[in-house]
Amino acid sequence: MTFTQWMHEVNRLLRPLLGGMDSRDIGDRCWRDAFDDALEPSEAIEDLIGDPNDPNFMRNAVFG
Q1: What pLDDT digit, counting tens, does each position of 19-47 carry?
Q2: H helices within the chain, ranges in order?
Q3: What does pTM read for this prediction?
Q4: 2-to-31, 43, 61 alpha-carbon distances in Å
């Protein structure tokens, strides 16, 4: 998978979680580093904003 394909998957997963927003609409994240570290798109998302099933979902992205 290329980085572009990987980012398409990141955004496909993010949009329903964030009400249509994608990677460009949330806090800074070096997506390329996550890709280079061989993280799955879902792992990179969870690392940034947390588990969508957790009651504190997005707390890290909002409050750092």
Answers
A1: 898 898 876 778 999 999 999 999 998 88
A2: 3-17, 31-36, 41-49, 59-63
A3: 0.78
A4: 13, 17, 26
